[in-house]
């Protein structure tokens, strides 16, 4: 069974309050990453129809700050599927009263895995690209997946060394 990419699209908005900011009155990176993980989980669950867990997060570059009082907008979509895994792209934007429209502040790709009640991986539907704007993400997904696999192998090698050698 295939599902259209647009069927997984999820959006979430929130106002940035003082408790979400650092001493520069910009949003804490960790707070933003938590919200990114949340929208990605919703997106993955919407696509898979199952519980999901975060398997990885690719790098997150903060392109522009999100300031106190801004509205942060998080948009997620499934851009690739494996047997039980899903690549989710999360786009982060801001709106405020002094600028017109949404301003891109960052984006990242995350991997989620669908699991059953025992935490065992479940098969997920394949995706079908149904939008010209999503086509680039769809067409370049395999490159990102291969990079992720290489990085994971390197991480496993490092973990063996770090576990025994450091500190």
Automatic annotation (TrEMBL):
User: InterPro entries, per this entry?
Assistant: Cytosol_ACT (IPR040170), HOTDOG_ACOT (IPR033120), HotDog_dom_sf (IPR029069), Thioestr_dom (IPR006683)
Asked whether the UniProt record includes Hydrolase among its keywords, one would answer yes
GO CC terms in record: cytosol
Q: Which GO terms describe its biological process?
A: acyl-CoA metabolic process; fatty acid catabolic process
Start and end residues of each HotDog ACOT-type domain: 6-118
Reading the lineage from the top rank, the first entry is: Bacteria
Asked if ATP-binding is a keyword of the record, the answer is no
Q: Which GO terms describe its molecular function?
A: long-chain fatty acyl-CoA hydrolase activity
Which SUPFAM superfamilies does the record cross-reference, listed alphabetically? Thioesterase/thiol ester dehydrase-isomerase (SSF54637)
Which portions of this protein are annotated as coiled-coil regions? none
Q: Name one Pfam family in it.
A: 4HBT
Kindly state which keywords UniProt assigns to this record, in alphabetical order: Hydrolase
Q: Which PANTHER family match?
A: ACYL COENZYME A THIOESTER HYDROLASE, CYTOSOLIC ACYL COENZYME A THIOESTER HYDROLASE
Family note: Belongs to the acyl coenzyme A hydrolase family.
UniProt-recorded name of the protein = Acyl-CoA hydrolase
| Species this chain originates from | Nosocomiicoccus ampullae
């Amino acid at each position: 069974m295939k599902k259209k990419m647009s069927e997984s699209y999820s959006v979430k908005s929130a106002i940035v309050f003082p408790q979400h900011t650092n001493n520069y009155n910009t949003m804490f990176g960790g707070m933003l990453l938590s919200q990114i993980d949340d929208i990605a989980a919703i997106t993955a669950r919407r696509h898979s129809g199952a519980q999901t867990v975060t398997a990885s997060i690719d790098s997150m570059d903060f392109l522009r700050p999100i300031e106190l009082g801004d509205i942060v907008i998080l948009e997620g979509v499934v851009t690739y599927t494996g047997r039980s895994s899903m690549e989710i792209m999360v786009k982060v934007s801001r709106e405020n009263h002094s600028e017109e429209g949404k301003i891109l502040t960052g984006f990242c790709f995350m991997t989620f895995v669908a699991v059953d009640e025992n935490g065992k991986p479940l098969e997920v539907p394949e995706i079908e690209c149904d939008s010209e704007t999503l086509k680039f993400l769809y067409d370049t997904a395999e490159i990102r997946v291969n990079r992720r696999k290489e990085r994971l192998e390197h991480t496993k090698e490092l973990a063996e060394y770090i576990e025994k050698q450091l500190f």
